[in-house]
Amino acid sequence: MELKDSSENVGRVGHETIGAEYLRSMGFSESVCRLVGSHVAAKRFLTAIDKSYYDSLSSASKKSLEFQGGPFEGEELDAFLRDPLRDQMVAMRRWDDAAKVEGIIDETPRAETYLGMIQRHLERSED
C-alpha cells in the first residue's frame, strides 16, 4: 500500500521487510538481510536519540515515521541499543539519507558496478 498526502509520496508500508525478504530469497546472508530490514528501525532509533536528525528529515519522511510507529521508546529503544548490528544499521540509514539528493543518480554507480561483489557474497553465503 502506498501512502500519499496531497502532495508527497511518503513511501511504501513495509518496504524494509519486502527488501529483506527478497534478498533472503536470493541467498544473501542473514546479516545483509537484517541490515536492509533495519532501514525503518534505524530511522526510529535516530529520531529517538537525536532531535537534529528528526529536524533534518523531509516532511514525507516525518509523515512516514508516524505510520512506522514513531521514534523508539522503552523496550524497543533498549533492544535496538543492544543489537550487535546497531552501528552498521545506523550507518546504512545515514547512507540512505545521504543519497536523497536531487541529481545524485547521475553520480551514483549503477548496480552492475557491484556485480562481482554481490557474486562473491552469494558464493560465501552458500557455504
Structure description:
There is one protein chain. The chain is mainly alpha-helical and 127 residues long. It has one domain: Hypothetical protein af1432, CATH 1.10.3210. The protein is built from eight helices and two strands. It has helices at 15-26, 30-37, 39-49, 51-56, 59-67, 74-82, 86-98, 115-125; strands spanning 2-4, 9-12. It has a two-stranded antiparallel ribbon. Mean pLDDT is 87; it is low at 1-10.
Coarse shape: globular
* Overall CATH class: Mainly Alpha
Strand residue percentage: 5-15%
CATH topology: Hypothetical protein af1432
SS-derived structural category = mainly alpha
Amino-to-carboxy terminus distance: 37 Å
Q: What is the makeup of the main sheet? A: 2 strands, antiparallel
Provide the helix percentage. Answer: 55-70%
Number of helical runs?
8
Give the spatial strand order of the biggest sheet. Answer: 1-2
> Overall pLDDT, averaged?
87
Describe, in short, the structure shown.
By secondary structure, this protein is mainly alpha-helical. It contains 8 helices and 2 strands. Strands 1-2 form a two-stranded antiparallel ribbon.
